[in-house]
Amino acid sequence: MDALLTLGVTSCQQIIFIGSVGSLDDNIGIGDIVIPEYSVCGDGASRYISSDSLNNGDVFGEKIYSNIDLFNKSKTVTERICKEKT
């Protein structure tokens, strides 16, 4: 999160972030690609990213949905790449 916030004061226009998370599903293996429909806020920094105030906008524990167009585009591109590689 610190790196992303730092990029906010640069001329950077696009980034690609590949995250790492654990799974609660035994069917998801190491190296599997997962594109979630939403995430649940559980870190400190993004709790307040939607507001300039530490008293307002705390989204800890809430579902945060991605932009549906970006979600669909990511899914389509990933499916295409996976089919090309198999």
UniProtKB/TrEMBL annotation:
Nucleoside phosphorylase domain mapped to chain residues: 6-51
Molecular function GO labels: catalytic activity
InterPro entries named in the record: Nucleoside_phosphorylase_d, Nucleoside_phosphorylase_sf
An annotated GO BP: nucleoside metabolic process
Xref: Pfam families: PNP_UDP_1
Gene3D superfamilies: Nucleoside phosphorylase domain
Name of protein: Nucleoside phosphorylase domain-containing protein
Organism, as annotated: Acidilutibacter cellobiosedens
